[in-house]
Amino acid sequence: MNGTDHDPAELDEPAPVEADLAQRVKEAEARAEESRGAHLRAVADLENYRKRVAREVDNARQFGAERLAGGLLPVLDSLELGLANAGRADAATLAEGQKATLKLLVKALEEAGIAEIDPCGQAFDPALHEAMAMQPTNDQPPDTVMTVAQKGYSLNGRLLRPARVIVARAPDA
Around 69, how many Cα atoms within 13 Å sit in the side-chain half-sphere? Predict the structure, then answer.
């Protein structure tokens, strides 16, 4: 045989390189199919996670005030009781009832994470206080809160309402 003649038996059998290449292709296709399956599972897991988080956010929006509402119910009961007895009670008894109701309200707010901001005597902080006026005085250092017209409140460290204050300033010379 010369260099151009081939044995017919050799043509029927794939060359070792071709067999190795075919095996590699099969393995690559198997890995690709595994990756595709893993990708589809990950996409499904992510979609399930998104749905679960959306449900949780919706529940939090609907029922987030539940703890506060539960704490306010005794306040409501106390106010209703006070109104029902307003015609029969003297001023001192009504004042005691108001004090007790206020304690219930403060407790309910504290349990809900709402904290009072009462900065009387403290340095003025524009992040927590709203200055209504500045008043000249020698009694307190400048930029100190002299009077609190309306207390402020924060919810878990986040400002709900700034305290409305009157701030000391140096007297005019």
Answer: 5
Please check whether residue 136 is in contact with residue 158, taking contact to mean a CB–CB distance below 8 angstroms.
Answer: no
pLDDT per position as a tens digit, 10-47: 555 557 788 889 899 999 999 999 999 999 999 999 99
3-state secondary structure of 55: helix
Q: Which residue in the block uniquely carries the two structure tokens 């996409």?
A: 43
Q: Residue 114: what are its φ and ψ, rounded to 5°?
A: -95, 125
C-alpha to C-alpha distances, 70 to 75, 106, 112, nearest whole angstrom: 10, 13, 10
The verdict on pTM exceeding 0.90 is: no
Length of the chain (residues)? 173
Give the integer Cα–Cα distance in Å for 32 and 42: 15
Give the number of other Cβ atoms within 10 Å of residue 94's Cβ: 13
Distances (CA, A) of 55 to 47, 62, 68: 12, 10, 21
Dihedral sign, CA of 63, 68, 74, 80? negative
Q: Report pLDDT digits (tens) over 60-106.
A: 888 878 888 888 999 999 999 988 888 888 889 889 999 999 999 99
